[in-house]
């Protein structure tokens, strides 16, 4: 087992993997720190009933590496980390999160964590009793509140940059955007598109209530059935519900010039990013365009400031333009261009840091 772990760490470039077991609560948590070139590692804590410890380890290694790229591209001074708790999220307890807090504290500021799938901001109130290294805190505890506002703002900026790259102008006036999912982020995106841009919106959701609520505010939007959204004749398809929506079954249905939305892991596999590129559909890499929430969480490490968060989030516009430029110059799909941008930043910062002792 340990040989396997080291092989994987070497292959994926991890710095540290910590196995934590608390004998009082039975907490089993793995913390992975991928890369701290840019600063302390940052990444949420996922709680899942993994089928095996190997599955949990594979997940934490994959997710922590992903955080290095997400932090790197967003311009924040943090590296990639992640925690997984092995267990049923219905069986959470104060003790478990206090124990997690104590383990995180032992890493002494090299890693900050917070909520992810299976955990909620309130769980970390217990962890905060034992550690200073918690982000995504409830507002009463110095947190920034819902990240949906920042995320939707960043997605809006990303849509504008994508239009600039594709059509030469960043105006969305008259552009048709097909939105999949009218949840916390999707409905705020509708607001930006209608009120700030004068765009046309076609939207769908599996929840009739969600559609009704958004329609009652913006009667001008069109709606369609959930499985019809891929085929809508539009300028931009904006996934804002689920992952893996760009896949073998949907890709030929797409009738858009741009794919740009908030959902995580939109490409089922990398090859689907290659296919979008070959079809001439501009893809805004998901971890870049949806980085607003991460930027907000990172800001909490110092002292949350809404204005600063929005300012940093607005840079998603320029970052995407840089990625599109690399993609065009090197003739590589945009998801690969984003990785090139991050790796260049890591090399530069590592170089600067080793030049002399500051
Ligand atoms: N909230 C954030 O700050 C944030 C940050 C980064 C990424 N994301 C990602 O953005 C996406 C949206 O986030 P959210 O916070 O709005 O989530 P949410 O749960 O509030 O909303 C998701 C919406 O999608 C709908 N939906 C589910 N399956 C659907 C389907 N098959 N077709 C159409 N609609 C469907 C749901 O009914 C719900 O209304 C998620 O993928 C999330 O992981 C969110």
From TrEMBL:
**Tell me, which GO biological process terms does this entry list?**
amino acid metabolic process
Q: Which residues form the Glutamate/phenylalanine/leucine/valine/L-tryptophan dehydrogenase C-terminal domain?
A: 145-354
Query: Which one of the record's GO molecular function terms can you name?
Result: oxidoreductase activity, acting on the CH-NH2 group of donors, NAD or NADP as acceptor
Decide whether keyword Transport is in the record. no
Task: Specify which residues bind NAD(+) according to the UniProt entry for this protein.
Answer: 181-186
Q: Which UniProt keywords apply?
A: NAD, Nucleotide-binding, Oxidoreductase
Q: Does the keyword rRNA processing apply?
A: no
- Record's InterPro entries? Aminoacid_DH-like_N_sf (IPR046346), Glu/Leu/Phe/Val/Trp_DH (IPR006095), Glu/Leu/Phe/Val/Trp_DH_C (IPR006096), Glu/Leu/Phe/Val/Trp_DH_dimer (IPR006097), Glu/Phe/Leu/Val/Trp_DH_bac/arc (IPR016211), NAD(P)-bd_dom_sf (IPR036291)
Please name the catalytic residues of this protein.
82
Similarity annotation: Belongs to the Glu/Leu/Phe/Val dehydrogenases family.
Query: Would you tell me the protein name for this molecule?
Result: Leucine dehydrogenase
Origin organism is Natranaerobius trueperi
